[in-house]
Amino acid sequence: MTVVAARELRDGEVVFVGIGLPNLACNLARRTHAPHLVLIYESGAVGAAPERLPVSIGDPALVTGSLMVCGMADVFQLFLQNGRIEVGFLGGAQVDRYANINTTVIGSYERPTVRLPGSGGAAEIALHAQRVVIIAKLSPRAFPERVDFVTSPGRRVKRVITDRGVLEPDGPGGELMLTALYPGVQQSDIEAGVGWQLRSRPTLECVDPPTRSELQLLREVLDPKRLYLKG
Amino acid sequence: MTVVAARELRDGEVVFVGIGLPNLACNLARRTHAPHLVLIYESGAVGAAPERLPVSIGDPALVTGSLMVCGMADVFQLFLQNGRIEVGFLGGAQVDRYANINTTVIGSYERPTVRLPGSGGAAEIALHAQRVVIIAKLSPRAFPERVDFVTSPGRRVKRVITDRGVLEPDGPGGELMLTALYPGVQQSDIEAGVGWQLRSRPTLECVDPPTRSELQLLREVLDPKRLYLKG
Amino acid sequence: MSLRDAVARHVHDGDVVVIEGFTHLISFAAGHEIIRQRRRDLTLCRLTPDLIYDQMIAAGCAKKLVFSWAGNPGVGSLHAFRRAAEGGTLELEEYSHFGMVARFSAGAARLPFWSLRDYAGTDIPQANPRIKSVTCPYTGEALATVPALNPDVTIVHAQRADPQGNTQIWGLLGVQKEAAFASRRVIVVVEELVDETVIRSDPNRTLIPASIVDAVVIEPWGAHPSYAQGYYDRDNDFYVAWDGISRDGQSLDRFLDEFVYGVRDRAEYMQKQPDLADRLKARARFCAGVNYGF
Amino acid sequence: MSLRDAVARHVHDGDVVVIEGFTHLISFAAGHEIIRQRRRDLTLCRLTPDLIYDQMIAAGCAKKLVFSWAGNPGVGSLHAFRRAAEGGTLELEEYSHFGMVARFSAGAARLPFWSLRDYAGTDIPQANPRIKSVTCPYTGEALATVPALNPDVTIVHAQRADPQGNTQIWGLLGVQKEAAFASRRVIVVVEELVDETVIRSDPNRTLIPASIVDAVVIEPWGAHPSYAQGYYDRDNDFYVAWDGISRDGQSLDRFLDEFVYGVRDRAEYMQKQPDLADRLKARARFCAGVNYGF
Q1: Residues of chain B found within 8 Å of residue C111, distances taken between Cβ atoms
Q2: Between C85, C117, C122, which is nearest A115 by CB?
Q3: Above pLDDT 90, what percent of chain C?
Q4: What per-residue confidence (pLDDT) applies to A20?
Q5: Same structural domain for residues D200 and D87?
C-alpha cells in the first residue's frame, strides 16, 4: 500500500504530507524515483529532509535541515488556499462511495458512538490540493456507502489506495470504481471490503509488486522500528 | 516645535513614528524624559534604537539593534488595527478647522494643481492610533478652513503642534481652538496663520521654552547636519 | 515572576484560555500550574488539544473546548477528551485547522471575522453554526467566515525572551504570534532569559514584542513532553505511554496526583525524572549568523 | 540566468508588474533592464513608487500606476511622477499603505478581497471606487474591502538564495512574501547565490520557497541606490541628487542615457561608479546563530 502510494508521486511535485503511511510513502518516493519531491507539513515545515522517521507532523526532525519554516497562517493561506499544493494525501476512519472522508464521528455528531479527532487540516487539503490521494485499508466498516459525517469532500480525489487494490472515481466527484488489483488479489476480495455494490472498470490493471529495494528501504531504513508498517 | 512634540510623549508609550520632525521629536524624548519609549516605524522596525538620524523610515539604522522587525502586514494588522499604538504622529500639507489632514492633492483630485505623495500609512494612523498628534507650521495655506482632500480624518487628533503655539479640538472631532502660546508669541500671530476665525480657550497656557540641554541634544547630537531642523 | 504568580494573577475561573504551540513549545508547565490552582469553567482553545488539554479536561478545569484536531499525535485517541465528548459532559466548538488559524488571525488583527475558501461540501458548518459566509463585493463569490477569537489569556512557551518580554522563537511557529496578539493578556514562558542586547542582535527572530506581554516566566523544560527546538527533543515515549495512562480515569488520576498535584513546580517535576534531561537534551546544530550591518 | 534573459522571458508589454521592497531591497537592476528592453504599457504596482518607478515612468514604460505613497523618501517629490500625474498622462489607482498591503495579502491567499477597518471619514474611496465594503456576518459592522492584486510578474531582490530559488531575507521584509505568492511569475534577484545547505541550516529565514520561483538571477549591488542589509547602505546622496536630476525632463533623460541605456548590465553600471562600493559597503555586525538541533 505504501509502495503504491509512493509511486503516485512525480519528481519535483509539492506534496502536503500527513503523518503515518503518507509520510512513509513520501519519504520512500524521495529515496527512489522522486528525489526532488517537496514535502510540506501542516506544521509549517517545507522541504523537510528528516534524518529519522518523524513520529508526528510537528517532529523537530522535520525542521532541522528543512528549506523553510513558516507559520500555520502561511501554510493554509499561501500554500494550500493559494493552490500551490499539487498532491495531498489523506486517510480516514471512513471513506464512502463518492470518496467523501470522515475523521470526525462515528454515529451522530451530538451523541457519537466514537468521537474521532476531527478535521485537522483534512477539510482544506481535500478542497485545495490539486490532486487528492486517499490511503485506507479495505473493510465494510471503513468503506460504507455513506459516511456518518463528511469531514473532507471527495470532489478532488483522484485515487484511493487500499491494501488490496486501487479505486478511482468515475470522473470528478463520481462514484468510486475498482481500477487495479494487487498481485494475487481477486476482484471479489475487494468487493467484500466495500459496503456498496462496487463497480469495476472493464479492464483492470494489475499493480506491480514492490521491488526488493523498495521493501528494503521501507523495512530497514525508513521504518525499522515498524512504527507504521504493521504485519 | 520639535521640543514641544517630544514633551507630548510619556515614558513607555508605543509610538508610531513618521520621518522628519516626528522622528526627531521621538528620539529627543527617548534621550530625555522617556527612555523606554517604543518607536514603531511603518517599515516594520519595532523598538528601533538608531545610531544615526534615519533619513527615511526604511533606513537600515532602524533595523540594526532594534527589538523586532516584522512584515508590513503585521505592522498594519497586528499593531495599528489591533489598537496597540498609543500615539501616532502626523504631518501634512494642509490641516483644516476639524483637524482633517490632506497629503494627497492641492486642487481637484482628477486635475490637481499640486500632486502630493498620498496617504502612505497616514489614513490608518489617523484611524487607529489611540492619540494622534499633528506637527505643522502655521500659514493660511497650510491651515485652510477645509482641506481639498481628506487623507486622514481628524477624529482622534488630540493636539496640533505648530511653530507658534498649540491647537486642540474642542472635544473629540470638534473645531480646533488655540490652547497654548510659545514664549513671546501673540495670539494675533497665530490667528493670522490660520484660514478661519480661530477661537481660543478662555485661559491660554504658555509653553515653557526649550531648555539648553534639549536644544543642545537636538542641534549637536540628533541632527547635527540640520537635515530636519531649519533656520 | 514565578509561574505560580503569573497564573494566579492572569488566569481566572471562567476565562477563555489559550496554551498554543503546534507540537512544539506547548507550555505543559502552565497547564499543570492551572490544574494545581484548580481553575474551573475554562473555555480551552487550541488547534490540537494534545495531552495538555486532555490532562486539564481530566482535572476538571474545562467547561468547553474549541479545537480542530483532538488526538494524541502519532499515537491515537485522547481518552479523557473522548470520555467527556462521548459522555456529553464537555461543550465542543469545532473547526478545521484553517478555521482555527483564521479565528486567531482575525483576533490578532482585531477584525470581527476572517474570510476563507473552505467548508464547501463538508458537514462541519452543520455541526458549528458559527461558521457563516460572506459575499465578495467584487466577484459575488460566497466565502466561508469564522468569527474572531480573542482569548482572555494566552500562554506562549518560547526559547528566549528579555526581561521586558521581547520574545524569540525558531523552529515551528504554529499560531503563537496570532494567539498572542489576539489576547487580552499574554504570559510568556521561556527556556532562557536573555539580555535585551541578544534580542536586539537579531530582531527578525522576535515573534512577540514586550508591549503586548503581561508576564515573563523562566521555566527550563517547561514544555516537556512537548519540545523546544535547540533545547530538548519531544518525549515520544511519554506520548505513547499517555495512551495507557489515560485509558481509565483512575490511572490518569494517579498520574495527576504524582506529577501535577504532587509537585510544587516544574523544577520538582524535573527532579522526579532525573533521566529526562539526559535522554532528551538537544544536540548542537547551530546555524551561522547573518550580517545586520549597514 | 542573466537578468536580461529573465526580463526577456518573464516581463511582457502590457503586464502588471511589481518590483517590491520597502526602502530596502528594491531591484533597481531589474527596473533598469525593463527600461533597456523598452517594455511598454505596464501597470506598475508598489506601495512606494520610489525612484525606480519614477525612472520607469520617465522612460515611457508605464501606462498605469497602482500605489499608496509616491514621494522621494526623506527628500520630497517624485518629479517624473508629478509631471505625468499633473499632466494626466498616467492612469492612477491609489490606496493607503494598509490598502496596498491588504491587496497583496488577498492576492497571496488567493482570496478575491481582503477586509480592513479603514477609510471611514477619508476621501480615498471617492477617488478610488475599487474600495468597497462588506458587512460582518457576526456583528453587522461595515468594513472596508480592497480587491486582490495578482500581478503577472513580481521581482524580488534578496540577500541570498540557492540555485532552486529558496530565498532568504533579513532586515525589513516589506510585502515581499505576499507579492511573490500573489504573482503568476516570480523573479528573484540576489546579492549572493548560496548552497542549498546554507538555506537548510536556518530554515526560519526563508521567505520565498523555490516552488513559486521562475528565475533566479545573481546581481551584486542590484538594489543600489536602495540597499541590502548586511551588504551595502542606502545611497542617500543619490536620493537627494535625484531631486535635481529629475526636476526637468532633459536632465532626467541624460541620466537614463548614461546610467541605464548606456550600460549593458549592472556590472557595467558599477564599473562607471568605482567609488560606490567603498562608500556604501556594510560594516560587519553579525548576530550569533541559534541551535536547530533536537
Answers
A1: 81
A2: C85
A3: 100
A4: 76
A5: yes
